[in-house]
Amino acid sequence: MNTTKGTQRIYSLPVETTEWKFDGATEIHFNWEYDDGSAPLLELYEKGKKQQWDASTRLDWTLELNPDNPMELKDEAISIHGTDYWRKMTDKEKSWLRRELQANSISQFMHGEQGALIATAKIVGTVPDMNAKFYAATQVMDEARHVEAYKRLLHEKFQLAYPINKALKTLLEQTLSDRRWDMTYLGMQVLIEGLALAAFQSIRDKSGNTLAGAVNAYVMQDEARHVSFGRLALREYYPGLTEAERDEREEFVVEACYHMRDRFNQKEVWENLDLPVQECIAAVDQSDTMKQFRRRLFTRIVPTVKDIGLWGPRVRRAYEDMGVMEFAEVDAAAILDNDNRVAEEFDAKQFVQQQLGQG
């Protein structure tokens, strides 16, 4: 019997394997000129204030998940689908696998959002621009709300969770332990948030479950602003870097992008279900679905990295190697505007459903 107290009781693996503490080195920056700062960031702050929402009321938590396929995703999205391992599974085992894989994905979203919560709180203290401090304060509330929404989805609906995986843990620690404020921006606002948007979109657009789709749609509406925040701040700051400073940041971008691309192998689930880990990871790497997903992860990162000016030969070579250079021409602002529109469509859908329920 599991005697673990609190929410840790629903974890498939012991959280002690990934819990950690580290020195998040910080240099606090006060600014006594209260009218000082970027005008575009002040505009983003005004937008951030207007788009605050309540996870308890905007989402319909009475909706249930299908225990055999909680987010109602197609089996073709499972990387080992079509392999001998999949064909040999019973219906019960397939249901178990769907639930575990989906819970692991949402768990990484939840842990990543806690990382964003901590990172943005750090940005409030470290960034010199007063208007950036204002906007970052709204994002702190956004990130708390995102943790709340994913926590409720996992704890109340899945009743299952996974600890943070080692790759995400490493990237968060690298981002949060650097003293320089722009490195927190670059790691969190541009890379981790950009990656998250692509992962959220996959569920938002493909989930047959309204609650799961809505959680991701509403989180994405906020995250679109967060990526814009990083883009605006760094686009103004990076032209003043020395060649050595720019080179260091480009090296970080390249290493982080390879790191993030390769972490989506669901190793924790294969281990937990006693499936042959290396064979399953090999199937993941060879899966056309995973190859397409890994490419889509960079739809928001590549144009943003180009826009902020970290576009030296090393970065371009890495993106060519990953096969994602085509995203350099993507209109990042148009994608972010679409995220806002889709969230509003979920609002309209929920309103219609409520009215039908009252009819």
Largest sheet: none
What order do the SSEs take from the amino end to the carboxyl end, as H and E?
A: HHHHHHHHHHHHHHH
For the record, the count of structural domains works out to 1
Q: What is the CATH class name?
A: Mainly Alpha
Cα shape:
globular
CATH superfamily: Ribonucleotide Reductase, subunit A
| Structural class computed from helices and strand pairing | mainly alpha
Strand content: under 5%
How many strands in all? 0
The residue ranges in which pLDDT falls below 50 over 5 or more consecutive positions are: none
Enumerate how many helices there are, as a single number.
15
Roughly how much helix do the residues carry, as a percent range? 55-70%
Might you state the CATH topology name?
Ribonucleotide Reductase, subunit A
N/C terminus separation? 46 Å
Named at the architecture level, the CATH assignment is: Orthogonal Bundle
Overall radius of gyration: 20 Å
- What number is the mean pLDDT? 89
